[in-house]
Every structure is written in structure tokens, then in C-alpha cells.
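Researcher: I'm preparing a figure for a lab meeting and need a structural model of a single chain. I don't have an experimental structure, so a prediction will have to do for now. The sequence is pasted below. Please return the structure as C-alpha cells so I can convert it later.
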Amino acid sequence: MIRINLLPYHELAVKETKVKQIFVIGGAFALFFVLLGVVHFVLLSSLSGLEKDVKAKEERVNTLNRLIGEVDNIRKEKAILEKKLAIIKKLEEGRLYPVRMLADVAAQVPVKDVWLDKLTQRGTSLALEGSARDNFAVVRLMKNLEASPFFRSVELVSTKEYETQQMKLHRFVLNCTLKGRE
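Model: Understood. Here is the structure written out cell by cell.
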């Protein structure tokens, strides 16, 4: 005997399958949106962390730029101070030069034969004016000055004979070229 089931079981099974598929697809979409939200949240937190790092790095760069500016200022001040120290050193080295040169001139003058009246220095030129007993005393003075380490050359500009207290003396003018300060 043939049995016929009049209940629509096949339609119920198809309906149940469709409902299951809708729940699976809906669950998949919900899971997709949850995962999308989690990824979005992770990216936002990572982005905010990176922004904080960028701000911290920018502050560090600003601090370092200020320090570099201060270092540059210190270097400029150091260069200025080194120039000043070089000038002071040069002045200190040259401080005793005139004293030594004048002491040398005084040592080169023949005693009791030559009298210096005036010394004038202009740059590397020194003019000597004075009186001498005779022209030989002037020549001795010139040779002594030429042998001095302070003078490069000695030239006689003029010599004149004059009389004072019944003595004949010779007035002379010498131009000397100084050597560099050593």
C-alpha cells in the first residue's frame, strides 16, 4: 500500500533552510561589522598614539633647535672672545717692544759724543734728531743703529754745523726703518 503524506514537510524543510541561511548571513554581516569596528578602533588608537608620538617628537625637535641656536650663539661668542684674546695677546707681546727699542737706541748712542733731542715714530719709521761733536760721531751712531736688531735701515737726512758756547757741534736728522715686531 502506498502511503501519501499530505503534510508539506518539504516546504517546511526549505523554509527552515532559508531561515538558517538568513541567520547565517545576518550573523556573518554582524560579525563583519563587529570586526570592522574593532579594526577601526585599533586603527584610531594607533593613529592617536602616533599623533602623540609626532607631537612629542616635534617638541623634542623644537627643544633641540633651541639648543642648536644656543650652541651657535656660544660659538659666535667664542669666536668673538678668541679674536679679543688674540688682540690682547698681540698687545701683550708688543707691550714691551717700544721700551726695548728705546733702550737699544739709548745703548747705541756714543756716550759724550752724541745727544738725542727728539725721537718721532710714525708707523715703521723712526726719526732721530740730535747733536753730535762731529760727523764721525754721527757715522758711529748710524753704524750702531744698523747693527741693532730693531732697525732695517738707517738714513742720514741732514747734518748742519752750528756753534754753541764756543763749541762747534753738528745738528743731525736720521730716518730709521723699523723691523717687524718679533
